[in-house]
Design a protein that fits this description.
The complex is a heterodimer of chains A (about 525) and B (about 350). Chain A contains 13 helices and 17 strands. In chain A, helix 1 runs antiparallel to helix 3, helix 3 runs parallel beside helix 4 and helix 9 crosses helix 12. The radius of gyration of chain A is 34 Å and the shape is elongated. By secondary structure, chain B is mainly alpha-helical. Chain B has two domains: about 160 residues, no CATH class; about 160 residues, no CATH class. In chain B, helix 14 packs parallel to helix 17. The chains are: A alpha/beta (about 525), B mainly alpha (about 350). At the A-B interface, strand 15, strand 16, helix 8 and helix 11 of A face helix 1 of B.
C-alpha cells in the first residue's frame, strides 16, 4: 500500500476541544422548506468571477434552467431553483462578512416547480470521460459546499493535471452547532458514496479517504453500511479525533496522510484533493439525477429559534423562511450568524437569501455569544500558540500588527493563519486576535495587489520608454541616412557639375583655338 | 428582523486574566499554610502589608497613566505580585521594608515598564533583590522553623506585630537570639569548613530532604503547582526543566566530589527551589513563549540556581537566576520560534 497508510498521526498539533452542541439540531430528520414565492439568487455564490446573466426581467424560466453563465474558468453558473418569472435583475444585499450588495436575479415562483431537462444526467457515468464529467460538474454550478464555495470543477481540473494520490472527503464537520453534513451522511449515505465514486472517476484518482470525527456515531454507522453494500474498496472510512478545526483542509490532510500542505500551495500540490460531503452529494444529484445545484442542506441552530434542525432549502430562499420553518424566533434572539460560532460571520438582516455556501444559520439566544469585552493587555501566557493549528505564535504576530509592522507580521507567516479563531477563544485577555490577523492578511494582500499594479505600471512605463527610444533611434537613423544620402548626393552633384564644366571647357577648347591661353596671359 | 454584528469567533472566551490570577492565589494556599505553621503568623502580616501597598500603588499608577481602575485592579495581578513577594520575606519584617518592596515591584518594575504584560523582569523578584541589597540585615534574619529545638523561642503573635510596626523586639529580646541561619547558609558555611554533607545534615535544622519546614513549604508549593498545571494556568516545561537543570548539575558535581558538594535531592527541596519552579519561573510575562524556549529557560534557571547557591554569596539563588534568565527571554524567543505549518 501507499506511504500514507504507515504514517498515521491521528491528530494534529494545536486545536481545541469544544462542546459540539449538535444534538439539538440532529433530533429530527432533514425537513423541507417550502419553495417561497419570491427568491433572490445572487449571480456570485462562489469564489471567482460573477456569473453573466442569461435572462432578463419578464423571462419565464424553468427549474434548473441557467440564470447566469460562468465567466471564465474560476466561476460557476447559477440556476433557477424553481420555475417562475424573472421579476428583475439588480443589486441586493447578499450574505457577506462585509455586508455587500451584489447583482441578483429576483425570481417570482409560479408554484409549478416545473423542471427543465438539463442534460446533465448520465446513468452510466463510467462511459463519460473524466473531462466530460468535470464539464458537467461545472455546468451544474457545483461549488465547495463546506462553506468555501470554490468552483469544484476548477479545483478538479487543476488537481488532475498533477496526478492525484487520493481524494480526501471532508466529513469532519468540526465547527460547533453545524450538523448538516452529519445529517446528510445519516440520510443520504448511499448517494454520497455514489458521488465519491463519480469524483474518483472524474479525477482518475485511485482511492478516497473519508475523514470523519469519531463522535458522529450514527453517520459512521450509516456510511459503513453503505460502503458494505456498495463494496468499493477504493473508499476508506477514517475516524479522527473530534478536535476543532479537524475539518480545516490543511489539518484534515495532515491527519489523514501525515503530510503538510506547503504554505504557498494547495493539497493538490502534494497529490491530494479535498471535497466536502455536500459537494459529493451535489455531484451525484447532477450526474445521476440531472439536477444542477439549486438546493442544499442547511442547519438552523441556536437558542434563538424554537425548533433547531436541518433543512433542505432552495438557494435564494430568504433566511426568514428558514427560521419560520423552525417555528420562528425565541424572544431573546440576539444575533444571527452564517456558519458556526468559530468562523461564521454576523448577518444583519433575515431577508438575506440562502446561498451555496450557507451551511448553517445560527440564531443566538441571550448571552449565548461573546459580549463585546474590554481587552486586557497580552500577558504572554502562550495559550494562543498552544492551540494554533498553523503553529504560529499569535501573541508575537499581535504585537507586530498592533505596532503597525505588517512586514514583520508577513515575515512571521501571518499568511499561514487559517482564521480558525482558536487563539482568540483561549486568550485570557480577550484580545480580538482573529480580527487582527484578518486585518493584517487583508491589508497585506491589498498591498500586494497595489504592488503588482505599480509593478505593472512601472513595466508599462518602461516599455513605453523603450518604445519611444526605439522609435527615436529609428528616426535618428532615418535622418542620418537621409543626411548622408543628401551629403552623398551633393558630392555627386558637384562632381557631376565639375565634370560638366570640364566637358564644356573641353568642348570650347576643341572648337576655339587656345582661347584659354589668351585669358591666361 | 435586524441584528447587530460582531466579529468571529463568537463563543464566549474560555478564561480570563482574572481567573488565572485567582487560581495562582488559590494554589498558594497550601504553601502559605505550611509557611504559617512552621514560621508563625509573619507571612500573614507580610501579605497584608504588601497586598495593601501593592493595590494602592497599582491604583495610583493606573490613575496617573489614565487607565481604567476597575478591570486592572480586579485582574488580581498586583495582588499576586504582592503575595509572591511576601513569601520571600522573613516572617519578621518591619512594615516599611515590606511596603518599600511592594511599592518598588508595582511602580518601578511593573508600571514604569508599561504595566501588565510589559515588564521584562519579574516584579516580585526585582523587589526582593532590591530589598536584599537595601536591607540585608532584615532580609536575612530568618526565624528557625517551629518544633526545632535549638533553644530559641518563637516570638508570639503580639511580639511579632510589635516588631512589624517598630522594627524592634520588646525589651529584653534581641534579634540574634531568636533568629538562626537558614539551612542553605549553614550548609555553605560548613562545607567551607571542610565538613561533608552527611555530617551537616545531622544538624537540628535539617529534616528529611532538606531544611526542616522549608522542605514542606516546597512540597506544598509543588502540590499547588500541580493543580495549576492541571488547570492549564502554567505549563510543565519551565518547572520540569528548572528542576532537571538543578538536579543534573548538582548530581554531576556531587559525583565528581561528594566531599565538597551537596547531593541533588537536597537542592530540590531546599530554599525556594520548588516554590520558584512553580510560581516564580512560570510567570508568563517574563518567560519565553515556545515550549522549546521554555525548556531552555527553565534549564538555565536550574543551572544558575546551583551556581549561585554553591559559589555565590547570597542566601538563595532563585531570585537572581530568574532575573538573569529574564534577560535572555527575548533572545530565546527569537531563536526558538516553532516551525510554521507548511513551511520548511
Amino acid at each position: 500500500m501507499e506511504q500514507h497508510d504507515k504514517i498515521m498521526p491521528r491528530r494534529f498539533r494545536g486545536g481545541l476541544k469544544l462542546l459540539p452542541n449538535k444534538i439539538q439540531s440532529t433530533l429530527t430528520p432533514i425537513r423541507h422548506v417550502p419553495v417561497p414565492d419570491r427568491l433572490v439568487i445572487p449571480l456570485c455564490q462562489h469564489i471567482g468571477r460573477e456569473a453573466v446573466p442569461l435572462v432578463k426581467a419578464g423571462d419565464k424560466v424553468l427549474k434548473g434552467q441557467p440564470l447566469g453563465a460562468a465567466d471564465g474558468d474560476v466561476s460557476a453558473p447559477v440556476h433557477a431553483p424553481t420555475s417562475g418569472t424573472v421579476e428583475s435583475i439588480g443589486m441586493h444585499p447578499i450574505p457577506h462578512p462585509g455586508g455587500l450588495s451584489a447583482l441578483c436575479v429576483v425570481l417570482r415562483s409560479d408554484g409549478q416547480d416545473q423542471a427543465i431537462d438539463t442534460g446533465l444526467a448520465c446513468l452510466d457515468y463510467l462511459s463519460l470521460s473524466p473531462e466530460e464529467i468535470q464539464n458537467r460538474i461545472q455546468r451544474a454550478g457545483i461549488t465547495g459546499l463546506g462553506g468555501a464555495m470554490y468552483p469544484t470543477a476548477a479545483k478538479m481540473s487543476k488537481a488532475e493535471d498533477r496526478g492525484i494520490k487520493a481524494l480526501i472527503v471532508n466529513a469532519a464537520e468540526c465547527e460547533p452547532i453545524i450538523s448538516c453534513d452529519d445529517m446528510l451522511m445519516r440520510e443520504h449515505a448511499d448517494e454520497l458514496i455514489t458521488g465519491i465514486q463519480i469524483m474518483l472517476h472524474a479525477m482518475s484518482a485511485p482511492r478516497a479517504l473519508i475523514g470523519i470525527e469519531r463522535d458522529k456515531k450514527r453517520a459512521i454507522t450509516a456510511l459503513e453500511k453503505a460502503l458494505a453494500k456498495i463494496g468499493d474498496e477504493r473508499i476508506v472510512l477514517r475516524k479522527i479525533y473530534s478536535i476543532y478545526p479537524a475539518g480545516g483542509e490543511r489539518q484534515l490532510v495532515q491527519v489523514l496522510t501525515g503530510q503538510e500542505v506547503p504554505h504557498d500551495g494547495f493539497p493538490q500540490d502534494i497529490g491530494y484533493l479535498s471535497q466536502n460531503v455536500g459537494t459529493a452529494l451535489a455531484i451525484k444529484h447532477a450526474l445521476i439525477d440531472g439536477q444542477p445545484l439549486i438546493s442544499r442542506i442547511t442547519t438552523v441552530a441556536g437558542k434563538g429559534v424554537h425548533l433547531p434542525g436541518n433543512f433542505e432549502v432552495r438557494l435564494g430562499t430568504p433566511i426568514a423562511d428558514l427560521v419560520a420553518a423552525c417555528g420562528g424566533y425565541h424572544d431573546g434572539a440576539e444575533a444571527m450568524l452564517m456558519g458556526g460560532p468559530m468562523m461564521g460571520f454576523s448577518l444583519t438582516d433575515d431577508r438575506l437569501p440562502v446561498i451555496k455556501g450557507t451551511n448553517c444559520i445560527a440564531v443566538a439566544g441571550p448571552s449565548e455569544l461573546q459580549q463585546t469585552d474590554f481587552a486586557m493587555p497580552c500577558i504572554r501566557c502562550g495559550k494562543c500558540a498552544q492551540v494554533c493549528p498553523a503553529h504560529l505564535q499569535p501573541e508575537e504576530l499581535y504585537w507586530q500588527i498592533k505596532g503597525g509592522d505588517l512586514d514583520k507580521a508577513a515575515k512571521l507567516s501571518v499568511g499561514a493563519c487559517i482564521e480558525c479563531g482558536c487563539c482568540d477563544y483561549v486568550c485570557p485577555s480577550h484580545i480580538p486576535l482573529a480580527q487582527y490577523f484578518r486585518y493584517a492578511k487583508a491589508e497585506l494582500s491589498a498591498r500586494d495587489r497595489q504592488q503588482q499594479k505599480s509593478q505593472l505600471a512601472k513595466h508599462r512605463f518602461e516599455d513605453r520608454e523603450a518604445r519611444i527610444r526605439i522609435e527615436e533611434d529609428a528616426r535618428q537613423a532615418r535622418l542620418t541616412a537621409r543626411k548622408k544620402r543628401l551629403a552623398e548626393g551633393s558630392q555627386q552633384e558637384r562632381e557631376r557639375q565639375i565634370a560638366a564644366s570640364v566637358q564644356r571647357a573641353q568642348a570650347k577648347a576643341d572648337t576655339g583655338a587656345e582661347p584659354d591661353k589668351d585669358f591666361g596671359q | 428582523m435586524k441584528f447587530e454584528t460582531q466579529f468571529a469567533p463568537h463563543l464566549t472566551p474560555s478564561g480570563s486574566v482574572r481567573r488565572m490570577m485567582q487560581r495562582v492565589l488559590k494554589a498558594l494556599i497550601p504553601a502559605a499554610m505550611a509557611h504559617v505553621y512552621f514560621f508563625g503568623p509573619g507571612l500573614i502580616f507580610n501579605i497584608v502589608v504588601a497586598g495593601g501597598t501593592a493595590l494602592a500603588a497599582e491604583a495610583a499608577m493606573l490613575r496617573l497613566r489614565g487607565l481604567p481602575l476597575r478591570p486592572y485592579l480586579l485582574d488580581f495581578s498586583a495582588l499576586v505580585t504582592a503575595v509572591l513577594l511576601a513569601f520571600t520575606l522573613p516572617p519578621l519584617t518591619p512594615w516599611w521594608v515590606t511596603a518599600t518592596g511592594a511599592l518598588f515591584a508595582i511602580v518601578v518594575a511593573k508600571h514604569l515598564y508599561g504595566g501588565l504584560g510589559q515588564n521584562p523582569f519579574n516584579p516580585a523578584m526585582t523587589a526582593y533583590v532590591v530589598l536584599l541589597v537595601s536591607f540585608p540585615v532584615y532580609m536575612t534574619s530568618w526565624l528557625p522553623p517551629l518544633n526545632v529545638d535549638i533553644g530559641i523561642a518563637h516570638p508570639g503573635f503580639g511580639d511579632s506585630l510589635f516588631y512589624l510596626f517598630t522594627g524592634h523586639l520588646p525589651a529584653g529580646q534581641a534579634m540574634d537570639t531568636i533568629t538562626a541561619a537558614s539551612p542553605l547558609d549553614v550548609t555553605r558555611n560548613q562545607l567551607a569548613q571542610a565538613r561533608n554533607y552527611s555530617e551537616i545534615k545531622n544538624g537540628p535544622l535539617f529534616g528529611n530532604f532538606a531544611g526542616k519546614g522549608w522542605e514542606w513549604i516546597g512540597i506544598y508549593s509543588a502540590l499547588g503547582g500541580m493543580w495549576l498545571l492541571y488547570k492549564g494556568v502554567i505549563r510543565w516545561q519551565i518547572p520540569s526543566f528548572m528542576l532537571l537543570g538543578l538536579f543534573v548539575t548538582a548530581a554531576v558535581m556531587y559525583v565528581l566530589n561528594p566531599g565538597a558538594y551537596v547531593p541533588s535531592g537536597f537542592h530540590l527541596f531546599a530554599g525556594a527551589t520548588l516554590f520558584g519552579a512553580f510560581f516564580i519561573a512560570t510567570d508568563p510575562v517574563t518567560a519565553p513563549i515556545s515550549p522549546r524556549g521554555q525548556k531552555i529557560y527553565g534549564a538555565g534557571i536550574g543551572i544558575l540556581v546551583y551556581v549561585i547557591r554553591t559559589w555565590g554569596g547570597f542566601p538563595d539563588g532563585v531570585a537572581f537566576a530568574v532575573l538573569f534568565m529574564n534577560m535572555t527571554t527575548p533572545l530565546i524567543d527569537h531563536y526558538t520560534r516553532p516551525r510554521v505549518y507548511g513551511h520548511d
